[in-house]
Amino acid sequence: MIKDHSKKYNDLTNLMNRLGTRIPETMIAFDSLHKASINEGILSSKTKELIALGIAITVRCDGCIAFHVHDALASGATSEEILETIGVAVLMGGGPAVVYGCEAMEALDQYIVLERNNDNG
Fold first, then answer.
1. CB 56 within 8 A of CB 86
2. Which of 26, 100, 108, 112 supports an S-S bond with 57, CB 3.0-4.6 Å?
């Protein structure tokens, strides 16, 4: 199953930027919706990213998993919080969520290695 989630994150970022040049109104609106939904509020950005990750797992979206594991970590989520989120997604999504939960765990492990390498290099 090994996928390069960091590459997926970067590739999708580039593709979404390209899509934004072709359908700018839609992508500007999507970006605004994303920012408004994830900004700090009564729920923290970290909590919102964890919710998004749980949904990404249950709807089986590879790209969403790469993004929301990345963004959950960037928002201050711990590995334990991400793993617990995977557990809740499994509860709600059953067997298929186990498969995509493994993808999320793999993304988490890859991002942690990258972070360590960046800290040491």
1. no
2. 100
